[in-house]
Amino acid sequence: MLDRRIELLRMIAHLGTVTEAAHALYRSPSGVSRQIQELAKELGVELLQPEGRRVKLTPAGKALVEYADETHHRWEATRSRLTTTEEPAGSITLVAHPSAVTALIAPLLPQLAQEHPGVQLHVIEDQAPGSFHRLTTGEADLCLAVVEEGIPARGDSRFHQTDLGKEPIDALLPVGHQLAEKTTVSLRELADEAWVVPAPGQASHHEVMTACHAAGFTPTVVHYARDWAAVGALVHATGAVSLTSRFAPYHHPNTRQVALTGEPTPTRQLLLATRAGSENAPLIRLVAAQLEDCALS
């Protein structure tokens, strides 16, 4: 396997700072810096250079990280081919977006345990970019994420990504709203309402604003919130409207979800990701296939 110091450099390249890399690996920043300095001295080259509050790789550092990524890819592919048992068995860790844990993964666990008793599926709730950090460090083997800010590019050679399905988005209205008893509503019908949306910089803010713009209006935002319980409470208390995932685990009892219709209808793309080279491992193929069946049902 690779020199552990090269793994540290790879994590710094992934996260952008020594401090973030150290936290992800449960190490001290000073210890990580010292090991990188020792590696640079041993190789006789500079590996990092400061760039504001972050650091960037030197050409030598980039070459070393590229070598590390290629080695990881080959190792994951080799390890996948070493498993020859017909019935998959063992432990696998899945990191997943909160709404996916509720709607897709939790219902899958009893079925998986019954059909494949030799498989132990462990779940971590997280979202990008943290979920991909867990893949990189080996804390997780498979990632179920929503395509949003923080997701690595499809061309990122460290990961293998595949589309899983669409997560439907509904309008969230207060009980008593004139549209709350309808079976469907268009975004355009909500153009004159007060809105609750995630704050700028939070996940889903861009998606909500883009959906409203595509429908021909800019929402009048009166409150910023992202937590499902907080959004529901604000919609109920103020009469504002919002958007919510159909997979969301909590809905305020005094609100109503109404399916959106018309073009464009907002959805969120779900994807599955693994470390590049590990996508054909039997356990990963098994869990991925089960998730695909759940997403399509």
Fold and architecture overview:
It contains 9 helices and 12 strands. It is α/β, with parallel strands linked by helices. α1 (4-15) crosses α2 and α1 (4-15) packs across α3 (29-43). The strands form 3 sheets. Strands 3, 4, 5, 6, 7, 10, 11 and 12 form an 8-stranded mixed β-sheet that branches. Strands 1-2 form a two-stranded antiparallel sheet. Strands 8-9 form a two-stranded parallel ribbon. The model has no long low-confidence stretch (mean pLDDT 90). The chain folds into 3 domains: 4-81, Arc Repressor Mutant, subunit A, CATH 1.10.10; 88-165 and 270-296, D-Maltodextrin-Binding Protein, domain 2, CATH 3.40.190; 167-268, D-Maltodextrin-Binding Protein, domain 2, CATH 3.40.190.10. α5 links the parallel β3 (90-96) and β4. It is globular and about 70 Å long. The protein has helices at residues 4-15, 18-24, 29-43, 59-82, 98-115, 130-137, 205-214, 228-238, 282-296; strands spanning 48-51, 54-57, 90-96, 119-125, 142-146, 159-174, 184-186, 194-197, 220-224, 242-245, 255-261, 267-275. The longest helix is centred in the N-terminal third of the chain and has 24 residues, at 59-82.
